[in-house]
Design a protein that fits this description.
12-stranded mixed sheet, two-stranded antiparallel ribbon, globular, 10 helices, TIM Barrel, 329 residues, binds S-adenosylmethionine, binds iron/sulfur cluster, alpha/beta
Length: 329
């Protein structure tokens, strides 16, 4: 079992397999001028499989595949099959925008994918277009339907953005009335590639404000017990099939039990979403370091882990401003 310098067990890897995306969510990516990474800069599938094997031997048992949009990477499905065969990995989850996902859902079911996080910030097609700058709402909705039809647990991720989708909060809550989904509202973070900071917004939607609004309309809403490493505060509204979660991603209230590691598409190893990377595992692999040497590096990185996202961000030269596609959310 991997334990960090603050006594937190680490068993969860979030692996971003690409920096490319077929949407341009304004809170995540600039509309234009994006320089995608040349393929040789990305971790290859072989390197990713090797890394996950190493981490599994160290105690990691859960992997989330993210990006960019993971289903844009060529041959992602054979990669997922290989990942599912790694000894010790017993949970594979995926975060996707759902644009290309619907036809792949039957295979994801065969793969026994544990759950899918589907990003969806509005149920209104026009507002979806304004937020993502692409007219793909129908495809995303088909993915939601396909996931439900195949009984794959779904969490719908909704970033709450002042002046953009405030009016969608309650309709997203209503999605959980008839559907077995967990609708999770996420505080907007500054990972937008544009240097915009939430604290500069006059009207920031903090997790408390989101909960207060929902409670004002659904006074019977009650708290569900949260799993120890949960990043969301979870709630149930009586007679709803699904439930509601709120993630204090910018307020960073969940760092005390953080069990996550991150690896970016270029192999940057991160021990906190808000740090700027500890080392580049791709480079070490290409310099022919052995598995044992890489294990030592990982072990050392975890003995110097920031206590929370504020400390991690303060240690950087610059505050965070990079696009989430370069990290994996
Ligand atoms: N493309 C996939 C998707 O959208 O689900 C996976 C990658 S995306 C970077 C992962 C998650 O990060 C999404 O749920 C997205 O909403 C979230 N995200 C991206 N930028 C964010 C930001 N600035 N603040 C909060 N969440 C953000
Ligand atoms: Fe693409 Fe996901 Fe970022 Fe939207 S949030 S631009 S879908 S990577």
């Amino acid at each position: 079992m991997l334990i960090d310098n603050h006594g937190r067990p680490i068993n969860y890897l979030r692996l971003a397999v690409t920096d490319r995306c077929n949407l341009r969510c304004f809170y995540c990516m600039p509309q234009e001028g994006i320089q995608y990474l040349p393929k040789p800069h990305l971790l290859s599938y072989e390197e990713m499989i090797r890394l996950v094997n190493i981490l599994a031997e160290m105690g990691v048992n859960k992997v989330r595949i993210t990006g960019g949009e993971p289903f844009l990477r060529k041959d992602i499905m054979p990669f997922l099959w290989k990942l599912s065969e790694i000894n010790g990995i017993n949970q594979i989850s995926i975060t996707t925008n759902g644009v290309l996902t619907a036809p792949l859902v039957p295979e994801l079911k065969k793969l026994r994918v544990h759950s899918v996080n589907l990003s969806l910030d509005s149920l209104d097609r026009q507002r979806f277009f304004e937020i993502t700058r692409r007219d793909e709402f129908r495809q995303v909705w088909q993915t939601l339907e396909a996931l439900q039809a195949h009984d794959i647990p779904v969490k719908v991720n909704t970033v709450v953005m002042s002046g953009k989708n405030d009016e969608d909060i309650l309709s997203m809550v209503e999605l959980a009335r008839k559907q077995r989904v967990s609708v999770r509202f996420i505080e907007e973070m500054p990972f937008n590639g544009a240097g915009l900071r939430p604290e500069q917004l006059q009207d920031f939607w903090s997790y408390k404000r989101i909960i207060d609004l929902i409670r004002s309309v659904y006074p019977d809403m009650y708290k569900l017990p949260d799993e120890p490493t949960s990043t969301s505060y979870n709630y149930q509204i009586p007679n709803f099939k699904g439930n509601i979660g709120v993630i204090a991603a910018f307020s960073r209230t969940f760092c005390g039990t953080c069990n996550r590691l991150r690896v970016t598409p270029t192999g940057v190893f991160k021990t906190c979403l808000y740090d700027d990377g500890v080392f580049n595992v791709r480079d070490f692999m290409r310099q022919k370091l052995s598995d044992e040497q890489i294990k030592l590096l990982i072990h050392d990185a975890l003995q110097n882990r920031a206590k929370d996202g504020f400390e991690a961000e303060n240690k950087r030269k610059n505050l965070v401003s990079e696009s989430m596609t370069t990290i994996g959310g």
